[in-house]
Amino acid sequence: MDEEQFSVLFAAQFPDVWRFARRRTGSGSDADDIAAETFAVAWRRRDDIPATDARLWLFGIARFVLANHARQGQRRDRLHLRLVSTDPPPSAYEQPAPAQEELWPALAALDGDDRELLLLRAWDGLGIAEIATLLGIDRATVSSRLHKARLRLDRQLRKHRGSAPALGERRRYA
Predict the structure, then answer these.
(1) Under 8 Å CB-to-CB from 158, ≥6 apart: which residues?
(2) CA nearest 34: which of 84, 73, 5, 81?
(3) Positive or negative, the Cα torsion across 100, 102, 104, 110?
(4) What's this model's pTM, rounded to 2 decimal places?
(5) Alpha-carbon span 22 to 118, nearest angstrom
(6) Quick one: which of 118, 119, 124, 139 could link to 132 by a disulfide (CB 3.0–4.6 Å)?
(7) pLDDT, position 90
(8) Domains plus CATH for the chain?
(9) Burial of 61 (C-beta count, 10 Å sphere; 0-12/13-18/19+)
(10) CA–CA dist 52, 48 (Å, integer)
């Protein structure tokens, strides 16, 4: 792949890669770093970029970059804990939109695998086959896990709302 082809790929895929990273990081600047590193790796490996599914290939690279970023963050946090005195600096958090106030706690209550599947499907717009390729598992496994993850998310949403069980679901009594 030459520089011009890579520029076209970059222009077409950068917004999706940035959004993919943003949903998995704490800030827009972290997403900037992840997206930049993803495309730096892609540039170094431009001869390996598949003619089809380049977006999926970039998402795979972004997952590895995110994992490295998380490990670096953990190391930085451990160092910070050693350096900070009894008065840590205040943290600023983005306020969620009202419609998301129920969703975020419900997603946070799920395990990481469920959350990742739901994010890949709903926000990244990946199909079952694409998710299977990205995660290296069978399509049937993705479908099954995604179905179960949706059920668990629904239970968490109802739990946060205090709603009754969905139609056809039994209420469990202790």
Answers:
(1) 164, 165, 166
(2) 73
(3) negative
(4) 0.57
(5) 15
(6) 139
(7) 58
(8) 1-86 (1.10.1740.10), 96-163 (1.10.10.10)
(9) buried
(10) 11
